[in-house]
Amino acid sequence: MMTEDFDAGLESAVPVWAVFGDLMAGLLGAFVLILVCALGIQLELATQLESEVKQRQAETQRLQTLEKALATPLAAGRVTLTNGRIGINGSVLFALNSAELQPEGRQLLKSLTAPLTAYLQSRNEILMVSGFTDDRQVRDGNRRFADNWELSAQRALTVTRVMIEEGIPSALIFAAAFGSEQAVASNADAEGRSKNRRVEMAPTPRPSASPAKPRE
């Protein structure tokens, strides 16, 4: 009788240990899975951080190279360099409401052409020349320009053409117009309006050629 009871208890205990073993195996598998996922996320974050650090280092090096190329005009206070944008006060280049380049402005552009050309060619970049105005409307007596958009566009084109004449390859430069948009100072006073009447040059990455679409 006792032997039968012992055998019955042993038989009932076996499934319990089997279930316990399966449970522990499942928990171990889940732990391993969580650990693998955590390691994967950590590796991805480390790779992303390394990529961001390299990008910042490359941008810092780019700005330092550009600053070095423009050391002379920067030291003379003839241009400014802010976040990779080369700024020239509009009064240096043009008279009020005019797109005709002044002699002083031409000399300044001539001094910028050689270092900018060397910089662009060494980095495979192109130069965007942007024209800006204040918010005052073009005078009624000045019929050459319909509005500030047209005035800023013509000024950008004038600077672009002069720099091409001075030696920068035409493939390395293009013009853009912003009118009175993107002001850097208040237009409420003469000083602020003077700062907004400006031309900026910004080296930008050369656009990659898109693959040609097959003809249908």
Automatic annotation (TrEMBL):
<keyword id="KW-0472">Membrane</keyword>
<protein>
    <submittedName>
        <fullName>Flagellar motor protein MotB</fullName>
    </submittedName>
</protein>
<keyword id="KW-1133">Transmembrane helix</keyword>
<keyword id="KW-0812">Transmembrane</keyword>
<dbReference type="InterPro" id="IPR006665">
    <property type="entry name" value="OmpA-like"/>
</dbReference>
<keyword id="KW-0282">Flagellum</keyword>
<feature type="transmembrane region" description="Helical">
    <location>
        <begin position="16"/>
        <end position="41"/>
    </location>
</feature>
<dbReference type="Pfam" id="PF00691">
    <property type="entry name" value="OmpA"/>
</dbReference>
<feature type="domain" description="OmpA-like">
    <location>
        <begin position="81"/>
        <end position="207"/>
    </location>
</feature>
<dbReference type="InterPro" id="IPR050330">
    <property type="entry name" value="Bact_OuterMem_StrucFunc"/>
</dbReference>
<keyword id="KW-0969">Cilium</keyword>
<keyword id="KW-0966">Cell projection</keyword>
<feature type="compositionally biased region" description="Basic and acidic residues">
    <location>
        <begin position="190"/>
        <end position="200"/>
    </location>
</feature>
<feature type="region of interest" description="Disordered">
    <location>
        <begin position="185"/>
        <end position="216"/>
    </location>
</feature>
<dbReference type="InterPro" id="IPR036737">
    <property type="entry name" value="OmpA-like_sf"/>
</dbReference>
